[in-house]
Each structure stands twice: as structure tokens, then as C-alpha cells.
Amino acid sequence: MSRVGKKPIPVADKTKISYKDRVLTVQGEKGSLTRTIHPDVDLDVQDKEILVTLNRDDRNTRALQGLTRSLVDNMVVGVSKGFERVLEINGIGYRAEVSGNSIVFNLGFSHPINYKIPDGITVSVEKNTVVKLSGIDKEALGHMAASIRRLRPPEPYKGKGVKYAEERIQRKAGKTGAK
Description:
It is a single chain. The chain is an alpha+beta fold and 179 residues long. The chain folds into 2 domains: 3-80, Ribosomal protein L6 (Outer Surface Protein A, domain 3); 83-164, Alpha-Beta Complex (Outer Surface Protein A, domain 3), CATH 3.90.930. 21% of the residues lie in helices and 37% in strands. It is built from 3 helices and 13 strands. It has helices spanning 3-6, 59-80, 138-149; strands spanning 9-10, 16-20, 23-27, 32-36, 41-45, 49-54, 83-90, 95-99, 102-106, 113-116, 121-126, 130-135, 161-164. The chain has a 4-stranded antiparallel sheet, with helices on one face. Strands 1-6-5 form a 3-stranded antiparallel sheet, with helices on one face.
């Protein structure tokens, strides 16, 4: 049984929940999110909490219960508090800047990289090397952070590249001199 899926999802006072025809809409201070719920699970929307219930009892449905609970909880937290992800750029000459609705990265290639900012995500760059992403959709925010990191992943010898702020790069020793 999914222990995560059984936990009730607390709903903040200023958050409005509507669930009709398998479509969940969550509205809060920061915006609105909509998601279609899988047919094998169902939501029991009460005043201050949401419960995820099973329509069938098998292994895959129990897994969907935990997944659905996490997705709905992320929606509720996103519209009330929002999410933030911080990326750090390490390397000589590596930098980023926001221009219009895109970010321009200089990451040691022969050309700058223009990355279009998706709707619903705000970006700020501090000291040319710290990129802060914020938004209400945790899934879209994580996808954008991962695709930015993928432009130049950190390498293990000097640590140059784009990394998450909380990430720790395991460093390797370089070449040793010949004897």
C-alpha cells in the first residue's frame, strides 16, 4: 500500500479547488493550475483537505495513488507559495543574462546560446553567474532547470559548467607527472 498516497493533502485558506469530469483545477494567490486525473484513482475534495482514493486495488493503481497525491500536492503548494530553483555557473568567462523573453548563456562555446523562457516561469540573474528560476508549476520548473543544466553539465576536473546550487560535484585528480 502507498503510504504517501494515503496522506491527506492540506489546502490553504485562500486556495480554491474544483474537481469535475476528472479535471482538477487549483486556484490560489499566485495563479491557477489544471490537471487531468487518471481514471484508476479518484479525488475526495473536502473543505480543508483532499484525499486520493483507489477505484481498483492492484499494484499499478497503488503506485498511481502515490503519484497522484504528489502531483496534486505540488499543485496546491505551487499556487499558494510557488517554487524556486537556483543554478550556478562556474568557469572563467561563463555567464548569463536575461534579454527580453530569453536567457543568453556564454558557456565557453564559440557562440552564445539563446534559451527561450517558457510562459509561467520568471528568471532573474544575479552577478552574471547565479540564475534563479521561479514559478507555480514544479514540473515545468524542474524541466527548464534540467535543460539549462544540460547545456554545459559540470565536469569533474575543474568543476566548470552549470550546476544546481545544492549540488555537490565530486572532483577527480588530474594527470600526474611522468617519472
